[in-house]
Amino acid sequence: MRWLIDGHNLIGRMPHLHLDDPNDEEKLLQHLRRYRAKTGHSITVIFDPGHSYQPGQTKKEGGITIQFAPPGKTADQLIIRRIRKVKNPQAVIVVTSDRAVQEAARQARIRVIEAGAFAQQLLPMPPAQAEDEGQQADINLSPDEVDEWLALFKQRDSNE
Prior knowledge:
Radius of gyration: 21 Å
Largest sheet: 6 strands, mixed
Strand content: 15-25%
Order of helices and strands: EHHEEEHEHEHHH
Shape: elongated
CATH topology of the largest domain: Rossmann fold
Oligomer: single chain
CATH architecture of the largest domain: 3-Layer(aba) Sandwich
Strand order of the largest sheet: 3-4-2-1-5-6
Number of domains: 2
C-alpha cells in the first residue's frame, strides 16, 4: 500500500500540531515514521513551500518520501499531478480534506481518507484502549516492585 499525503492539510487536523510552529513538518514526520514502522507501507508526504526545508526539495527517509512544492506551486497541484500518473489505483490511498484533490483521486478510482480520520490513526492509543485491543501497556517496574511480584508468585505456587 502506498500513501499519498497532503502534509500541511494533515498537520491542521492533528491535535498538538500547529501550522504556525516552525517544526510542524518534522513533528508530523515523527508520527509518520511510527506509522510506517507499524505498517511497512510506503508513504509520500507533500508539503506546500515552507520555511523548514528548502522549497522544491525532495528527500527519502526509510520508506517515506518528503517533498516540498517549489515556489509558485502548491502541494495540491503536485498531488493531483501524481494522482494522474498512478497506474494501479487499488494500491494507493490519498490523505487530504481538500475537495479538489479528493475529486481528482475519486476520478482516478483511488481511495481517499479525510485528513482528520487519518490523524486519529497516527495518534498513540490511550493505555486503556491499547489493553482492550490486546496490546501491552509499557509499564516500568522498580527492582523492589519486581521482587514483590516474584515473592507473591512464589508464595502462590507453594500454596497450590
